[in-house]
Amino acid sequence: LATNPISSAVIKRMVSFAPERSIPPLSPRTMRQLVKSNISTQPSSAKKVYLFADEFTNMQEAELGLTFANLLTALGYQVIIPKTVESGRAAISKGCLVLASSYADRNVRLLRDIVNDDTPLVGIEPSCILSFRDEYPDLVPAKLHDDAVRLGKNCLLYDEFIMREVARGNIRADQFRSEALDVWLHGHCHQKSLVGIEKTAAMLRLLPACKLHVIPSSCCGMAGSFGYEKEHYATSLAIGEMVLFPTLRRAQANADGRTPTIVAAPGTSCRQQIFDGTGIRAVHPIEIMHQWLNR
């Protein structure tokens, strides 16, 4: 339905999406299903980590979730996807705070007794996992406020977790291949505003022969559903054309053909915007880390 020209056109009219946009298709199987069927049981002695199945990765980019689970497993971690509901990010962004509060309440109750410094909750999509730290303490009832604060302190982005483990000596640069690559990194707005992208850059620099370019871009122009909406489409592309799109086009044009040139963007909306605006397929930084793993 999302990719068929006729049915997708009907859907776009129904929800006021710009006809030029691509509707993100659903994954054939969810992230939860893929990880459960593809990740073998780890020995109980392995370091345990909880992986958050956010709504975007779980339903639309399940292979990305499996890739991260495979990376963590290869680095020596026991990966567990705990029982949760969606993060409530979309509800928050549209002002549906009663609904968002119900998601926050449920997630705090489900996770407060299992997530801690030794067994953190690690997320792939920045806007989803950062909701635990930023909005949840204000969304839950007063009696859950302290639990939400404690939980939020142990909810980490993919790069925060990996660089924490590097600092603890559990992950090393020699676990990755020393083959040359050029990476052009566009940071996610939500991530940049709350925690920055310095740890993503540091993570990619673990790759011994990685030449990293951090693009001095602002918002990609998508901003969740903003860029999908018919009335905002032109504005969305204009924002992308300020810095991001021209930089990526030049990077592609100047590639020497010998060294892989890869565009990295942590946000699912950012990757969609880059594809719609330039035709370039951007990847999540963890996909690069997995691909360059020294097997």
User: DSSP strand (E) fraction?
Assistant: 5-15%
Number of separate strands:
7
Question: What Rg, in angstroms, do the CA atoms define?
Answer: 19 Å
* Sheet of most strands: 4 strands, parallel
Tell me about this structure.
The structure is a single chain. 48% of the residues lie in helices and 10% in strands. The protein is an alpha/beta fold. The longest helix is centred in the middle third of the chain and has 15 residues, at 97-111.
Task: Offer a concise description of the structure.
This protein has helices at 5-15, 31-38, 55-60, 62-74, 89-93, 97-111, 126-134, 136-139, 145-153, 158-167, 189-194, 198-204, 233-242, 244-254, 268-278, 285-291, and strands at residues 47-51, 77-80, 121-123, 155-157, 181-185, 210-214, 261-264. With 295 residues, it is of the alpha/beta class.
Topology:
Blueprint: H1 5-15, H2 31-38, E1 47-51, H3 55-60, H4 62-74, E2 77-80, H5 89-93, H6 97-111, E3 121-123, H7 126-134, H8 136-139, H9 145-153, E4 155-157, H10 158-167, E5 181-185, H11 189-194, H12 198-204, E6 210-214, H13 233-242, H14 244-254, E7 261-264, H15 268-278, H16 285-291
Parallel strand pairs: 1-2, 1-3, 3-4, 5-6, 5-7
Helix pairs in contact: 2-4, 4-16, 7-9, 10-12
